Amino acid sequence: MKVVQPMNLSAFIRSHMDEILTEWTAFAKKAEPIEGAMSDLALADHAQQILSAIALDIETHQSQQQQYEKSQGGEDDTSDEETAAAIHGRLRQASNFSLLQLSAEFRALRATVLRLWLPMVAQMSETTIYDMVRFNEAIDQALAESIVTYSARADRTRDLFLAVLGHDLRAPLATISLVGEILMRTAVPPEKLASYGEKAKRNAAMMSTMVTDLIGYARSQMGAAMPTTLAPVDLRAVCDAAVADARAMYPASVIVFRPSGALTGSFDGVRLQQLVTNLLINAAQYSVKHGEVVLEATGLDDSIALKVSNFGPVIPKESLETIFQALVQLDGDADQDQRPKTSLGLGLFIAQEITAAHHGKIAVTSSAGEGTVFSVCLPRNPA
C-alpha cells in the first residue's frame, strides 16, 4: 500500500492561494473603517506577496542563530527593497485602519491557513511541527514589519498635524493680539471700531472652529463616537446659523442658501450646525475667487437632503477616496493663498462623523462641468 505524504505547508499555501485570499478579503471587509468603501483588490493589497514570502521563508534553511535573532525581532537588512508586509502596514494606516485591526488581519491569516491545512495532515510528524514553527515565525515577522511602517507613518502624520495646528492657530491669534494692541495704544476713531471688532470676531471664529474639530477628532481617536443629543430641530434655522458663521469667516465669498420642503426632524442641532459650517467653510476655501457657494436643503418623505456645491479646482479621483480621512488636506490655487484657511484637515472628517452619528450618508463628486458637490442625506428620525 502506497503511503501518501501530507502536503507540506509551503506547497499548500501556494496551491490554495485563492482560497486563503478569499477568506483574508472577507475578514478585512468586516474590519475596514468604512463599510463598502474599499474594493476587494484594495482590501487584499499585497496579501499574495506576503503569503508567497511566508512560503519561501518556510523553505529557506535557517540556522539556530538566525532563528534566535528572528525570535528577538531581528530583521534581514541586506535588501533595500521594502517588503510586501511593510507596504501593507503603511497602506493600512493610510486607509484609516487601527493598529488593532492590522494585528487582527494577521491573526486571522494565521488561523485561516492552519485551519485549512491541518485537516490534510493525517499524522503529526517532526516535519509538520517544523513547518508550523517556521510558519508562525514568518507570520510574526510579517506583522512586525507591518507595525513598524504603520507606526512610522502614523508618527509622521501626527508631527505634521501638530505643525499645521501651531501654524494655523498662530495667524488668527496674531490678528486678535494686534487688534488688542491697537485698541490699547491709540485713540481709534469710532467709525473704525466696528471694523476692528469684526476682524477680531472673525479670527476668533476661525480658532473656535479649529478647536471644536480638534476635540471631535480626539474623541474619535479614543474610540468614542461623536456625542449627539436628538431633539426636534428645524434645519432651516440650523442652516441659517451655519451660513452666518461661514460668511463671518469668508466675507468676500458669495454664499447662497436655497431651502425647500419641510426641514424638521429629530437631530442634534449643534452638531448639524457644525457639519454644515464645515462643508461651507471647505467650499469657500477652495472656491474660485468671487464664485458662489450654494447650500441646498431639501425636505423629502423620510429624510432631508443637504448639498453644498462650488466651482474650484477639480478634485482628483484618488483624492476623493481619502477626502473624509482625518488630517487629509488638498492643495488650493495660488490665487487663494491670501484667503483665511482652517487647514487642519479635520473639517470633512468631523462632517462624516456627525453624519454617521445621525445614521446618514455623505458623499462627494467633483467635475469641471458640475463643480464639487458634497451631498448629505439625513433620516428625519434616526434610530
Question: Which tags fit this structure?
Answer:
two-stranded antiparallel ribbon; Globin-like; Heat Shock Protein 90; 3 domains; alpha+beta; 383 residues
Q: What does the model show?
A:
The structure is a single chain. The chain has about 375 residues and is an alpha+beta fold. The chain contains 13 helices and seven strands. Helix 1 runs antiparallel to helix 4 (about 45-60). The relative contact order is 0.09.
In brief, what are we looking at here?
The protein has 383 residues and is of the alpha+beta class. The protein is 57% helix and 12% strand.
What does the overall shape look like? elongated
Radius of gyration (CA) equals 27 Å
CATH superfamily of the largest domain: Histidine kinase N-terminal domain
Q: Kindly state the percentage of residues in helix.
A: 55-70%
Total strands: 7
Alpha-carbon distance between the two ends: 66 Å
Overall average pLDDT: 80
The count of domains is 3
**String of helices and strands:** HHHHHHHHHEHEEHEEHHEE
Range of strand content? 5-15%
User: In order across it, which strands form the biggest sheet?
Assistant: 2-4-5-7-6
Major sheet, described briefly?
A: 5 strands, mixed
- CATH classification, class level of the largest domain: Mainly Alpha
Q: Which architecture name of the largest domain does CATH use?
A: Orthogonal Bundle
CATH topology of the largest domain: Globin-like
Catalogue the unreliable spans.
333-342
Any chance you could write out the topology, listing elements then pairs?
Blueprint: H1 9-15, H2 17-31, H3 40-43, H4 47-59, H5 64-71, H6 84-94, H7 99-117, H8 126-185, H9 190-221, E1 231-234, H10 235-249, E2 254-260, E3 264-267, H11 269-286, E4 292-299, E5 303-310, H12 317-320, H13 347-357, E6 361-367, E7 371-379
